[in-house]
Amino acid sequence: MWILSLLMILILSSLTGHQVVVMADDAVSTAKANSLDSSLQEYAYRALVKPKIGTFYNATTQLPSNFTGVTLAALRLRSGSLRRYDIPNYNEFQIPKGLVQTPYVKRLVLVYQNLGNNNNWSSNYYPLPPNHTYLAPLLGLVAYNGSDLFATNLSHLNLNVAAGHPIIVRFRNVKSPPPGTLPKCVRFDLFGASHFTNVTGGNTCSTFQQGHFSIVLQYSTPPPPTITISPLPSP
User: Fold this and answer.
1) Which domain holds residue 39?
2) Structurally, how many domains does the chain consist of?
3) DSSP characters for the chain?
4) Longest dimension (CA), the chain
5) Which of 12, 47, 162, 214 is the most buried (most CB within 10 A)?
6) Which pairing describes strands 93-95 and 139-145: parallel, antiparallel, or unpaired?
7) Is 86 part of a structural domain of the chain?
8) Residue 219: pLDDT band by 50, 70, 90 thresholds?
9) pLDDT tens digits, residue range 85-131?
10) Tens-place pLDDT, residues 135-176
11) In angstroms, rounded to a whole number, what is the distance separating the alpha carbons of residues 49 and 180?
């Protein structure tokens, strides 16, 4: 019944263009995702040695071997700079001016995550609803307090587009969907809920908030095999 209800909601979303929100029902998955964020935040900050404001720092080299396939970067900014300036190319993210972070901090760091083409990372930490599969790597954009670069286990800052244009995510590696299917953008918010919206141009999603993003496809469940019962032989 849950799967049927979700299917009807997604069909309605396709017809109306409205966003669909699926609340997380697995607290373990949400806790795992938050734990991964904390680890990646710590490794990203290790790349910020005497960092210059507004400079991208590749933090992938800070990752241990068990993070093979993951790409990581960090960008340190002054408080309020996101309201006044845009960031046209932070890897796949195009960030417009007008973003507001709360609570107030003197410095903030935008951590970029790319969990790569290994679906084990995406599926284990950000499981999709039944009958869905990833077509693109899972990308993360998360804001943290950047005042103390030795801090660990930081909480996320709230980051929202106050006005103007949304954040654009242009995926570079998207698998081709089967003919006649309709891929969807998915955003996992920082509380574990997944939000589904329409893809534009085959590889582009938009958002007014931070989180984790990908392009996914809903597929049909194969019908059960037909069982043919042969008549019993005559005695």
Assistant:
1) 2-218
2) 1
3) -HHHHHHHHHHHHHHH---EEE----HHHHHHHHHHHHHHHHHHHHT-SSPPTT-EEE-GGGS-GGGTT-EEEEEEEETTHHHH--EEEETTEEE-S-EEEES--SEEEEEEEE--S-HHHHHHHSPPPTTEEESS--EEEEEEE-S-TT--SPPPPEEEE-SSPPEEEE-S--PPPPTT---EEEEE-TTS-EEEEE-BTTTEEEESB-EEEEEEEE-PPPPPPP---PPPPP-
4) 91
5) 214
6) unpaired
7) yes
8) confident
9) 999 999 999 999 988 889 999 999 999 999 987 767 888 899 999 88
10) 999 999 999 999 999 999 999 999 888 777 899 999 998 999
11) 49
- What is the C-alpha to C-alpha distance for residues 117 and 177, in angstroms, rounded to an integer? 16
Cα dihedral angle (99, 104, 106, 110), rounded to 10 degrees? -40
Closest C-alpha among 108, 184, 118 to residue 148: 108
Residue 21 has a pLDDT of 57
Q: Is the pLDDT of residue 225 over 60?
A: no
pLDDT confidence of residue 136: 96
Report the CATH number that the domain containing residue 182 is assigned in CATH. 2.60.220
Looking at residue 208, its pLDDT comes to 92
Please count the CA atoms within 13 angstroms of the CA of 207 that sit on its side-chain side: 29
Looking up tokens 């790349």 gives 47
Q: How far apart are CA 216 and CA 62, in angstroms?
A: 29
Q: Quote the pLDDT of residue 227.
A: 54
Q: Within a domain: residue 81? A: yes
Residue 224 inside a domain? The answer is no
